[in-house]
Write a sequence for this structure.
């Protein structure tokens, strides 16, 4: 096995002190440009690699942030991560990303890996079935910042970044009411998660203002998958009193449901007006295009990283009120029953 080149090897070859070589490789201003260039060239030629592990032990910093998400195969989460990457890279941090696959036990394993990897801070969007955040206690007890985003859990020592899901749910239902819908169904995800519970609360508030009771028939809880979209269409087709409006808390599920309903000869929005959530690209390639809620994922990712870096740099405490970002209703043809505008 070939021997690893060290600073001492470089120093011997170049007839310089190890301290000079070390400073040059770390771009120390006390070392002149020509010496830095000479050392960098020889280091590259011999395949020298800096020992970041040893450096991390000395500084107690890895310049790495851990990120745990429910799933990576989501347009929304990809957008969030893109925002995180941009800010993290600009500030010299790397991201260590893992997915819980909607499992609390997998999330616990991810958290342990992040802790053992000595991340400087942790950002988490929790899994469907997460009941407790005890697996983050090791971070909290050592003052390693933990920030929740999108799907959040409350803890007095953890920050959070969310949108106003209650208002977004209200806006979606209010729009369907304004388009003349009176039998509106809401298809939600796991109500243990704040994003779905809050959207449902907004949905109920809009119906209540219109004098309509949200009964058990008007709320359907699913996993919001593509398969669920097809099952929702089958369920609606068998209902004696079919809904004339549908608010589905995920665009991909909404689009699959639309296609299944159209295959059963329902017209959209004539028979059923539909609103989705997230403003995924798929919302614009379906016919008719899907009315949806714009969820600022990229901004959420950037904001979350800025918040955790502010605590790491000592400029701002992470423990504060949730950071709430604005969403927006984007009206397209799938819900326009009255007029052409």
């Amino acid at each position: 096995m070939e021997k690893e080149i060290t600073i001492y090897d470089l120093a011997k070859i170049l007839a310089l002190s190890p301290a000079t070589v070390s400073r040059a490789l770390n771009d120390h201003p006390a070392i002149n440009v020509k010496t830095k260039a000479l050392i960098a060239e020889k280091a590259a030629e011999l395949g020298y690699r800096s020992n970041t592990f040893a450096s991390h032990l000395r500084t107690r910093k890895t310049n790495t942030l851990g990120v745990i998400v429910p799933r990576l195969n989501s347009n929304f989460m990809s957008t969030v991560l893109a925002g995180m990457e941009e800010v993290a890279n600009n500030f010299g941090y790397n991201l260590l990303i893992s997915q819980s696959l909607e499992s609390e036990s997998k999330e616990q394993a991810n958290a342990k890996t992040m802790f053992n990897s000595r991340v400087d801070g942790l950002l988490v969007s929790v899994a469907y079935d997460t009941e407790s955040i005890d697996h983050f206690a090791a971070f909290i007890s050592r003052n390693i910042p933990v920030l929740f985003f999108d799907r959040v859990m409350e803890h007095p020592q953890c920050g959070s970044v969310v949108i106003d899901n209650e208002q977004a749910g209200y806006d979606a239902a209010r729009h369907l009411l304004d388009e003349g819908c009176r039998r509106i169904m809401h298809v939600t995800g796991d109500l243990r998660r704040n994003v779905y519970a809050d959207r449902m609360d907004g949905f109920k508030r809009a119906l209540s203002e219109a004098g309509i009771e949200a009964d058990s028939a008007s709320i359907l809880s699913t996993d919001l998958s593509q398969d669920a979209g097809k099952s929702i269409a089958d369920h609606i087709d068998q209902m004696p009193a079919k809904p004339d409006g549908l608010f589905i808390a995920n665009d991909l599920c909404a689009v699959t449901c639309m296609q299944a309903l159209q295959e059963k000869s329902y017209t959209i929005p004539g028979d059923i007006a539909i609103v989705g959530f997230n403003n995924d690209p798929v919302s614009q390639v379906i016919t008719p295009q899907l009315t949806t809620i714009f969820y600022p994922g990229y901004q959420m990712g950037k904001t979350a990283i800025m918040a955790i870096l502010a605590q790491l740099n000592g400029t701002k405490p992470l423990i504060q009120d949730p950071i709430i970002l604005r969403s927006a209703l984007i009206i397209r043809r799938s819900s326009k029953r009255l007029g052409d505008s």
About this structure: The mean pLDDT is 91. The two ends are 71 Å apart (CA to CA).
